[in-house]
Amino acid sequence: MHSGAQYHQFILNSPRDRVVRNRFQRLALKLLPEGADVLDFGAGTGIDAKAFAAKGHRTFVYEPSAAMREYLVQHCSDEIALEKIIQIPSPLACKVQGVTANFAVLNHFEDHTLLFEELSRVVHPGGFVLASMLNPYYLGDARYAWWRKNLVNLLRRGHYAIASESRIHRFAPRIVARAATPHFRLERLAPRGLRLATDLYMFLLLRRL
């Protein structure tokens, strides 16, 4: 288990993770209208939240881990004092144009149906949920026995879980889209096609109906 400080330094010092985070932030900021509020769901240590706030977006942060919250308060102390970043005890405690969930936050859920129902009460009509999730088709994981063991489950059911302490779940995009119905529709998936075999993370953009 990482402390907030350990996670923060690890994620910032990982070249691959920096590339993913930069892509995610650029896409989120492009989707947000000027001055629109955003919810950073599973905000971690506040890296994305700080970037959103710097671009003029009041950012609500929900983070269930006490260790992450503790470091978030340090990392975003100025923005919190100015109420550019606002900590909330529940995702339902805000109303926003967009929700971001970066670095596999949604992979910690076994079923997203209830989550999307709740987020439908948070996101304005026409708003969005943008999530980066672990890509179940990533061939870099084929060297692991758990990936090979679950390939049939992925093809048949579109979902499997890895037997570990965190019990991370992997989902085909269609399973997430189905759970989001009828409140959201899957508007964009990246990457697509053959690149699904080469990228560890996939980005899902779900539009509020």
From TrEMBL:
PANTHER family attached to this UniProt entry: TRANS-ACONITATE 2-METHYLTRANSFERASE-RELATED (PTHR43861)
Keywords linked to the UniProt accession: Methyltransferase, Transferase
The organism of origin for this protein: Dyella choica
Protein name per UniProt: Methyltransferase domain-containing protein
GO molecular function: methyltransferase activity
BP terms from Gene Ontology: methylation
Coiled coil location: none
UniProt-listed InterPro entries: SAM-dependent_MTases_sf
Pfam families named among the record's database cross-references: Methyltransf_23
Entry superkingdom: Bacteria
Keyword Transferase: yes
Source species taxonomy: Bacteria, Pseudomonadati, Pseudomonadota, Gammaproteobacteria, Lysobacterales
